[in-house]
Amino acid sequence: MTTSIKALDIVALGEAMVEFNQTKNQPVDAPPMYLQGFGGDTSNAAIAAARAGARVAYLSRLGTDRWGDRLMDLWQRENVDTTAVVRDAQAPTGMYFVSHDAQGHNFSYARAGSAASRMQVQDVAQHWGEAIAQSQWLHLSGISLAISASACDAAFAAMRHARTAGTQVALDSNLRLSLWPLDRAQACMRHAVSLCDLFLPSMEDMTALTGLTQAQDIIGWSHAQGAAQVVLKLGADGALASDGHQQRLVPGHAVQAVDATGAGDCFAGNLLARLSCGQSLWDATAYANVAASLSVQGYGAVAPLPQREAVLKVLSSAKAPQA
After folding, report:
1. Chain mean pLDDT for the chain
2. What value does the mean pLDDT take over residues 4-21?
3. CB crowding 298-309: b at 16 or more within 10 Å, else e
4. Rounded-to-integer distance, Cα 185 and Cα 179, Å
5. Pair 156, 191: CB distance under 8 Å
6. What percentage of the chain carries pLDDT values higher than 90?
7. Cβ neighbours of residue 184 under 8 Å, at least 6 residues apart?
8. How confident is the model at residue 1 (pLDDT cuts 50, 70, 90)?
């Protein structure tokens, strides 16, 4: 049996936004200052994958506003194909603000009624079907499902189209209960996991979704829903990867974190990039762990995403014999 050659490695579907990230080390009585950047979980993952050397395209709706133009420019600079991005003159591009305190980073969103929230099932047939069919992987997240009912339906349609076309589906849990009620999130995520080949949950998300608190139980739940491969993200401790037959704890890479915004997206994009070029689940997870550790050493979701050479340098150093 021959396998058809795919023109793309990864297509990612979701909402991209403009980011305003609060800078640290300001006087206590000074008004907050923000660094303007870009975000949106699947967009971050797409750029991370492109920097890792993958052939990537993005699927979404954007406003025809200035911010939408800047996002299009960003993707084109980052070698992310924008052919299938739909520009919507009736809705704005979303944005969000990141603030920091002793407990970590906090998000405030201005995305209600955004162009991406107007994604719909017809977009799959009219705009995205060919790109999905021509890719090794379709990547989505819980946020792709949560931003609106029509976007959720579009995401499910895209996942079904991918499976029909022989494209593997990756799903990052990325649970945001500010976007939808828990009972709807539980039902939709359970169905989404049943449609995916690779599930990328976090402990925090899965405890909220399922009540489970043990890594082994979360891995078991994920496989039971239908996910063939599961990589449970454990933050600084690394990741627990399972292919349904064996599990391995892949250690993290210790660094001094500055800003964790987008670290999970960086992980996802790099993992898929390495899987796309034939690496094993275990080696791809080790690579993604290092990439994510590099991404938390700078501010914002996109700017600190590492280039492939930086990740390979750290991996090479880690394997070098110690004097």
Report:
1. 93
2. 93
3. ebbbbebbbebe
4. 9
5. yes
6. 77
7. none
8. very low
Helix (H) or strand (E) holding 50: helix 41-51
d(CA 40, CA 269): 13
The values of phi and psi at residue 153, to 5°, are -60, -40
Q: Could you report the per-residue pLDDT of 121-153, keeping only the tens digit for each? A: 999 999 999 999 999 999 999 999 999 999 999
Where do the domains of the chain lie, and which CATH numbers do they carry?
Answer: 8-316 (3.40.1190.20)
CA distance 297 to 311: 13
Question: Please, which residues have CB within 8 angstroms of residue 100's CB and are 6 or more apart in sequence?
Answer: 22, 24, 106, 259
146 touches 176 (CB < 8 A): yes
Widest Cα–Cα separation across the chain: 68
Answer for the pair 275, 289: CB distance below 8 angstroms, yes or no: no
pLDDT of 2 higher than 70 = no
Could you tell me which of 85, 5, 8 has the C-alpha nearest to residue 54?
Answer: 8
Residue 145: both structure tokens together: 């499902």
Cα separation, 263 vs 254, in Å, equals 14
* φ, ψ of residue 320 in degrees (nearest 5): -65, 140
**Encoding tokens for residue 201?**
């949950």
Provide the whole-model pTM. Answer: 0.92
Crossing angle of helices 281-295 and 308-319, in 10° steps, is: 110
Q: Which amino acid is at 190?
A: R
